Amino acid sequence: MFNSLSDRLTATFKNLRGKGRLSEADVDATIREIRRALLDADVALPVVRTFTGRIRERALSEEVSGALNPGQQVVKIVNDELVGILGGQTRRLNFAKRPPTVIMLAGLQGAGKTTLAGKLAHWLKSEGHRPMLVAADLQRPNAVNQLQIVGERAGAVVYAPEPGNGVGDPIQVATNSIEVAKSKLHDVVIVDTAGRLGIDEELMQQAADIRSAVNPDEVLFVIDAMIGQDAVKTAEAFLDGVDFTGVVLSKLDGDSRGGAALSVAEVTGKPIMFASTGESMKDFEQFHPDRMADRILDMGDIMTLIEQAEKNFDEKETEKLKKKVESGEDFDLNDFLTQMAGLKKMGSMKKMLGMMPGMSQYKEQLANFDEREVDRVEAIVRSMTPQERSNPKILNGSRRARIAKGAGTTVTAVNQLMERFTQAQKMMRSMTRGGGMPGMPGGGGMPQMPGMGGMPGAAGGKKKKPAGKKKGRKGGQSGNPAKRAQEAQALADKKAGKTQDPVGSAFGGVDLGKDDEFDPANLPKGFGGIFPGGKK
Q1: Are the C-beta atoms of 306 and 536 separated by less than 8 Å?
Q2: Three-state SS sequence of 185-247
Q3: How is 441-457 classified by DSSP, letter by letter?
Q4: What does the pLDDT look like over 270-292, one tens digit per residue?
Q5: Could you say which DSSP state residue 167 is in?
Q6: What is the per-residue pLDDT across 351-409, written as a single tens digit (0 to 9) for each?
Q7: Is the pTM of this model over 0.85?
Q8: In degrees, to the nearest 5, what angle opens at C-alpha 73 toward C-alphas 72 and 76?
Q9: With left for phi above 0 and alpha for psi between -120 and 50, is residue 288 left, alpha or beta?
């Protein structure tokens, strides 16, 4: 969503690096570029004027002139002001003292209210609540049926006494749903209301009548984050007609420029509370202004990444692995499978990698990353016998050829996986020796993930040369047919430009000597909160 804006702002701040002091001309040039970037992102003009005015005032004050690094201080000011226009503090749901808590959804047709109702119910269930969805959109064709399907996907009960398609009284349905929720012990009621293709008096009156009838604890205005400049006009109309208490951004994963997110909270004074970031039920998150500002400025979102990891990784398995590594035992492929399962539960690998600081420079690699590679890696490991997973050192050429055939892949792919696995083992040993994974002070590489080529500065992206020259094998080719096939495939890879030496060792051509020690400092800052033994 914010890729274009993030790229423009990052490029602008590069011009400030290394300057001992900033002149008024430097500040004006920076402000001019920020203004252009915001206008290109469809941010409302009044918001742009207010935002850049505050930045200029602070950038020309003693706050910057007295700073040791003026360029970094300006970036901090922009970050602070971004947090401000996004709402400042994280706003959480207000729950009723006496259940059920009533949440009413309002917005234009096509904004994604019905789908979002299911996502909100799914999120509430993960937080320990028992939500009930209410089908109060009785006008849009098949709206009731759609909510029932969405509710089934979310694992939530749907109250739909009327068939819809123009039949039934939505106000009566919403009113009756409260008593039904009490009788069936649902502590949250989510009322899905009707929308229109445009703003009209009938829509507003019906929404206002439902609000008066059920007296909701929260009224959430659902807005399509892709509608650009129209976001402000639509939000103001709903604020006057319904008086919502918070905003939910839908379709935040779209390819539009994101002006709605940067305009609505500032113009209406109402906080953005949630964001829908994909099509899956899990693609829904609490909106944190400070974290979103960090994402826009390419500073990453490590806190969200850690929270997702803590939620999806099995605590008992993680503690078991931690004790195993601390006792001196090696991380094996069974542990690798457990870690892979936790990563898959966290959702899209692209999204997780996108939360790393400085990921804008790897945009092309991220775009080309195939999510199915994670499944292919898992297939390779599951093609091994229990003995091979527990003791990977026994994986000779013939075993690797059999594993490759069983997983429907090549021996080269098996070798590459074992190379990455060897690095993971070294990382665990380093963490044990060092008492946790050290943070990375500013910048650095990212870990090589399955299916992604090595990136500049990435762990595993480049290999150091071995200390001594390896002795070649006398007698030419191996007598093992599978081994010969493996060597032929690897030799072809080498001629194609790959640096892997297939006969260097039994571990996919990786020299395990002193000069090839894995450096955990190459991992991004904050990754220690995900892996056992690391520092949060």
Answers
A1: yes
A2: CCCEEEEECCCCCCCCHHHHHHHHHHHHHHCCCEEEEEEECCCCCHHHHHHHHHHHHCCCCEE
A3: SS----BPPTT----TT
A4: 889 998 888 888 888 888 888 88
A5: B
A6: 676 667 666 666 666 667 677 777 888 889 999 998 888 888 899 999 999 999 998 99
A7: no
A8: 90
A9: beta
